[in-house]
Amino acid sequence: MSKERATIFNNLPKPALIGVMLVSLVGVFLMQGKLNEERGKLSPTHLEPLQDAPPMLALVTQSIAGFRGIITSYLWLRSNAMQQKKNYPEQMQLAEWITQLQPQVPNGWANRSWNMAYNISRNYEDPETRWKYIHDAVKLLRDQGIKYNPQEPLVYDELCRLFQHKMGHNMDSHHRYYKFRWMQAMEGVLWDSPTAGHLAGGVPDFESLINPDENNKKLMERAKRLRQEYGLDPREMQAVHKKYGLARDHTGEVIRDKDGKTINCLDWRMAETHSLYWANLGLKRCSLTPGREKRLHVLEKKVYVSMMYGFQRGRLNVPSATMKNMGVRINYHFGKDMNAFSEYSSGFISAPNLDSGGAV
User: Fold this and answer.
1) What is the pLDDT along the chain (360 residues), one digit of tens a residue?
2) What DSSP string describes 222-262?
3) 309, 316, 318, 301: which is closest to 357 by C-alpha?
4) From CA 333, how far away is CA 325, in angstroms rounded?
């Protein structure tokens, strides 16, 4: 009987076989929704279908259905092999396919961002190209990784690492350039000008960003860019600043200066402050995620380490006018005149922020 069946199928014309295959795929596609619903009832670890995903990503994840795990396992093996061989271009392409097939697996996003910021960027000597890869790694986690994994601490942890270590620390020979570029980006969105940011001590007017004046088109545009381009919620920023950004005495009371104004100890132009922001947001969103207790402890550590780094090097010690001039020299002369970068590197100075000693 089996031989007879095999003979029948072997004798079928190719169009008929293609038709059988298409009918089978349609059947799988129609049944996938019901299977997802039943699996969700029986398994607490089942991942629901993607919401608000790009059409191509949604089509791929739904069409291959049960084959997704097999294909992704092969891609992971291949990706690990390319990682060992330091073949990063092919590894990055494989990693992109992995995140497309399994966007709700946070390790895929963490792996891609790590290679972009720490491995691929090192292949280039000029700081602008390195900065591009580091900034792209930040955007990858912030705009896509968190979108598909809003309650996974690992994604927030990796994003904090980029701000805290890659930008904030001094382990990269171009770390001052990264700090400067991030400072430029924040000055362009949190204040009207670099001078305004300097006069404000790096503390934006949160209320104006939360409820911008509709008649102020520039302010409306900045508030929109803050949310859409940088993923920052001014309400969350204000909450973080109230919790960690005000100097306090040993009793927890807010310290005020002789004019009665609060003493701020967070500078929102600095990378360490943004590491603190994402760690705090991750703790808030992931606190009810089951089985993630160890990862939550890692995020708590990120909060404390960010505050420690803020104490050690959290005060910007360069006038805004000097920064602006250095920026002009870099934009027009870097790459042609290496002395311009030397002037910039020696001029960007951060100092200990002693006011933050009682902020926690």
Assistant:
1) 455 555 555 666 778 778 888 888 777 777 766 766 665 555 444 444 555 555 665 666 566 556 667 777 877 888 888 888 888 888 888 888 888 878 888 999 999 999 999 999 998 999 999 999 999 999 999 999 999 999 999 999 999 999 999 998 888 889 989 998 999 999 999 999 988 998 898 999 999 999 999 999 999 999 999 999 999 999 999 999 999 999 888 888 888 888 888 888 899 999 999 999 999 999 999 988 787 778 899 999 999 999 888 888 877 776 543 444 444 344 433 444 444 444 444 456 677 777 776 555
2) HHHHHHHTT---HHHHHHHHHHHSB-B-TTSPBPB-TTS-B
3) 309
4) 12
CA distance 97 to 93: 6
Q: What's the length of the chain?
A: 360
d(CA 23, CA 20): 5
Quick count: other Cβ atoms within 10 Å of Cβ 300?
A: 15
Token pair of 202, please? 């790096």
